[in-house]
Amino acid sequence: MKRSRIVWITVACMFFALVAWVTTVTAKSDTQKQKALIDQAEIYINDEAYVRAEPLLDEAASYSGKYAKAAEEGLKTVYLKLLDSDGYRRKYTNLLDAQMGRKGAEPAVFREAAEYYMSAAKETKALAVLRDGIAKTGDEALRQYYEEHRYVYKMSRNVYQDVTAPCNGGVQVKLDGKWGLAATDGTLVIPCVYDKISTFSGVSVVKQGAEVFAVNSSNLRYALSHESILDFGELNDDRIGVKTENGWVLATADFTCGSLTVDGIGMYSGGVIPAVNGDLWIQMAQNGPQHPNSTILYGMKLVAAAHRMLYSCALTMVSAYTLTVKCWMAVMRARNPLPTAGRL
Fold first, then answer.
1. Contact yes or no for 313/325 (Cβ under 8 A)
2. pTM, whole model, 2 decimals?
């Protein structure tokens, strides 16, 4: 009986030792997986390919290795970069909620959440997060931050320094010296972070520093120009005028350029493009729906066109003046009729 008990104790010890070994090996394996996933994700983040970094960091965070926290911090970085895309605000706040709900949550997490809600003009939510953080951590810095902001309320208004006329449901807007795109109700769609932005037509062409590229309505990069573009016009129906070192050419939204060079290009509409070349106003047409190459339909000398316009305006003004005089004389006759014959 005694010997049997010893055998069972020995077997139990071996079993627990095996479990401990498996746990150690698994933990080490999870840590190694996390490290490899995070390293690859950082490469994508450096290339601003955030949508490719997200699944790697999500997988790394699912493991129980020692890099779980680093993976979550990387995920929050990605979510913030994609915040204006569908679903990423919810992903970010869900991760914050998970971190704040854990036992031993750090004060920094509550501070981060509060700052996010403050920036989103959700002061009530921000203050609730701070109260929860103070109750759980007792952190004095959180308490001070709460006192500094508990009576601060921000008025949210869509106010811009400059706006353009609406086009295709979007309005180019300027704020703090930078351009973005708003909906016709004033709601900001593409943030005001660009030196220049075109009208919207599925995408907008933007300039940021030395780079010219196209972004979609979620402010995600759609295409990048690898050629030197000095300036650009307005985008419509996937056509835009761009200025190269040789002059203005017609291009697509992914920067496929035509070969016909002119001195200036207007907005593409209805298959034709107004342009200026030398002293001629010209109208260009594209060679096929998929090609930005163009041909000149007709041209008119600027001087002749200006003379015609001035002459037309002069005729209009003379006609309007003559009509006004006639109307005034008719009114005066009605008010002061001439005496009939034999009556004084």
1. no
2. 0.43
